[in-house]
Amino acid sequence: MADWVEACAVDDVEKEDVIRFDHGGRTFAVYRSPDDKFFATGGYCTHEKAHLADGLVMDDIIECPKHNGRFNYKTGQAKGAPVCVNLATYPVKIEAGKVMIQI
Ligand code: FES
Q: What domain range includes position 13?
């Protein structure tokens, strides 16, 4: 059974941005979409070990900072070369101004 953990405060992430969250020896990326919804994925690009929190959010896409691979951060879907393995995604909920993710 996966646990809900507090990743950050709602205000820690700006719209159309992403931050890093580390927990239990693992790393995650927490996104806030342009339409003000929150999402979470694994932190590292599935191509090489670049952290996606250093990348660029555009609509529902995260662009990796290293080789510009792209994923849909809402579904985890890899959007083409050089990334071909999808990202893991995690359920997110907002509670009392905190972003909670189920990992
Ligand atoms: S490390 Fe992300 S595209 Fe290569």
A: 4-102
pTM above 0.90, yes or no: yes
Q: What separation in Å is there between the alpha carbon of 49 and the centre of ligand 1?
A: 7
Residue 33 CB-density burial (10 A; 0-12 exposed, 13-18 middle, 19+ buried) = middle
Query: Residue 88 belongs to a domain with what CATH number?
Result: 2.102.10.10
Question: How confident is the model over 63-76, as pLDDT tens digits?
Answer: 999 999 999 999 99
Ligand 1 mutation pick, 18, 41, 44, 45, max ligand atoms within 8 A of CB? 45
Is the torsion defined by CA of 57, 92, 40, 24 positive or negative?
A: positive
Q: Which atom of ligand 1 is nearest to the CA of 48?
A: 1
Model pLDDT for residues 26-80, shown as the tens digit of each residue: 999 999 999 999 999 999 999 999 999 999 999 999 999 999 999 999 999 999 8
